Amino acid sequence: MKVVIVGCGRVGARIATALDRQGHDVSIVDMQTSAFRRLAPDFSGRAITGTGIDEDVLRSAGISEADAFIAVTNGDNRNLMAAQVAKVIFGVDKVAARVYDPVRAETFRGMGIETICSTTTMSNIFLDAVAGNASATS
To answer: Between 20 and 30 A from 89 (CA), which of 41, 43, 51, 69?
Structure first.
């Protein structure tokens, strides 16, 4: 599977490394070259410096052939824009984005973008850990 990831923070680097080790063709994009040091030393994918909403940068990452796209920058708006570009302009089938704001997560879902809302997910895990039930809603 060909996967393009935007954002090489802790989460992006971990996903990229895991997918690479599973034998997938992985490209990761980040605006800061220094972010790529988070990748494992044995990472064999491509690291591209640039913004994840720039079509030329995404083309150089191989988005035209991508089976999946993941946006995990620190910004909800950047993730939404990058995910929309991947889905609408390049027709990537599987598109997922990290979202911090639960309200925005619903909006993203309504646009056909798979969302992972870390705020809701973490709240539910903590509630389950201390109260025995996950009662937070997104």
So the answer is: 43
Tens of pLDDT, residues 12-39 = 999 999 999 999 999 999 999 999 999 9
d(C-alpha 66, C-alpha 137), whole Å:
32
Instruction: DSSP letter for 10, please.
Output: H
CB 38 within 8 A of CB 9: yes
Report residue 73: phi and psi, to 5°.
-80, 180
53-75 pLDDT tens trace = 999 999 999 999 999 999 999 99
DSSP letter (8 states) at residue 74: S
DSSP 63: G
Q: Which CATH superfamily is domain 2-131 in?
A: NAD(P)-binding Rossmann-like Domain (3.40.50.720)
